[in-house]
Amino acid sequence: MKLRIITSAAIAAIFAATGVPVSSDAHDFKAGTLELKHPWSAKAPPVAPVLGAYLVIVNTGAEADRLVGGSTPAAERLELHESTLVDGVARMRPAKQGIEIQAGKTVSLRPGGAHIMLVNPRQRPGEGEKFKATLQFEKAGPVEVEFVVQSKAQAPSASQDHGAHTKQ
Prior knowledge:
Layout: H1 2-18, E1 28-31, E2 34-42, E3 50-59, E4 65-71, E5 75-86, E6 89-94, E7 99-101, E8 106-109, E9 115-121, E10 130-137, E11 141-150, E12 165-167
Parallel strand pairs: 1-12, 2-11
Antiparallel strand pairs: 1-2, 2-3, 3-8, 3-9, 4-7, 4-10, 5-6, 5-9, 10-11
């Protein structure tokens, strides 16, 4: 029991340190040694041509994996992007090589950093609603997840413009 409490506290601390919202409706997905924690997206403005999507990926295995793409019926295209700060200016570009998740490491896809970009949204779910996407990993393969839509007030670092199932 004590170990379970300590583990839960450690997970909450990781989420707090990475800026990931912790809520009672958090939802996680698993694919082999990858754990996909709380996929979320901000509510899309009515005319936004793109929308960011975020999650935390934990690799509990001994081998690296790589998020290489994906798809969703909620948008025309799903792209992986990385953001950098160059001379005080935020720059965003496609992550052409995907996003590596090193063995035993955690990668946070979040506003202002690496993230998923939904191009030309077809759906604009409201706050609290969910939409499905399939994320493609180099080794783990395709993983179906659901992104929950949250208000920007709930979202960590909402300054960027641009939300367990097991796969064996």
